[in-house]
Design brief:
The protein is α+β, with helices and mostly antiparallel strands and 347 residues long. 58% of the residues lie in helices and 16% in strands. The chain is built from eleven helices and eight strands. The protein has helices at residues 2-35, 41-45, 49-64, 76-113, 117-147, 151-160, 164-174, 176-191, 233-236, 263-276, 308-329; strands at residues 199-202, 205-212, 216-221, 226-230, 240-241, 249-257, 280-292, 297-305. The protein has a five-stranded antiparallel beta sheet. Helix 1 packs antiparallel against helix 3, helix 3 packs antiparallel against helix 4 and helix 5 (117-147) runs antiparallel to helix 8 (176-191). The chain is elongated and about 100 Å long. The protein starts with a helix and ends in an 18-residue tail after the last helix. Residues 160-167 and 343-347 have low confidence and may be disordered.
Length: 347
Amino acid sequence: MENVLRPVIVFGGALVLAYVLAWAVDRLLVRLDVRHPETPMWGLLRRGRFPLQAVLFVALVSGFFDSTNLAKADHRETVDLWMTIILIAGSTWLILRVVAAITETIATRYAGSTHDPARGRRVRTQLTLIQRLVTAVVTVIAVAAVLLQFPGMKTFGTSMLASAGVLGIVAGIAAQSTLGNLFAGLSIAFGDMVRIGDEVVVDGEMGTVDEITVSYLVILTWDERRVTMPVSYFTSKPFENWSRGGPQQTGTVYLQLDHAAPVEKIREKTEELVRASDHWDGRSWSLVVTDSTPTTIEVRAAMTARTSDDLWTLRCHVRESLLTWLKDNHTEALPGIRRTGEPEKTF
């Protein structure tokens, strides 16, 4: 009876005590979160309650395991092995939760204290990449630590050291692209070339940078598609970043008109449309004739807006309104419109 009772007491007591300690820590974090609402760290740290319970449980079992009869049993090595694996997994999980809480707290507090949205996006991009690097390193170390608990893996690792030189060359060649993307990701994050939330144009695709990892970058397009590209692309090829230097932009509207078009009246109508729009930022506008052919002239209307979204809406509004106004009031300005009394062409 004692052989059964002692393990039950040790394992059951460790489980209950781990739960109580984790619950107490959780209540403490709740109180800290209420007292310090300016920082989200304490609330984010509560996500580590379950891995903390696992770590405490294994630590308590390991500390009192010698008091059970299992310590003298033949399966002592198996129990120690699984306790070690659970401890490694729980510790890794807990570390990743803490790292995520710290990075999110720094990003949130910096975004709330800075008046420059671009700098806030830059810091968030850097913190996101650092978090992903730490996650990758901690995960690799944890997996290696688990594998080394098995005697077969130790023997395998020792035998592989003999051919480490050849393997190093092969691994270097195979990982060339991966390492290139890794250093490209670091260059993007700390070189401030592109940040999360920036408006970019890549290979004719316009969208917002939605995610940056150590190997790829995700662009969310206006039609809600997600374009995934390697980060090395942004360090080796040109691309447009519409968010650098401020979100304000200048856009154009081109019209192909007849030589009889009343340019001065079109300029007055353009000014009326631009000034009446809520999407114009009040900085500047213009309308000029930029080109001519034997049959048409090219008229360019330029206007400014606060953001790329406002600019797109303003351009569409001005283009549509000008064409409607010309069709209703100056049909002679539109090429291809048949005039009254014009003889019908025959072919």
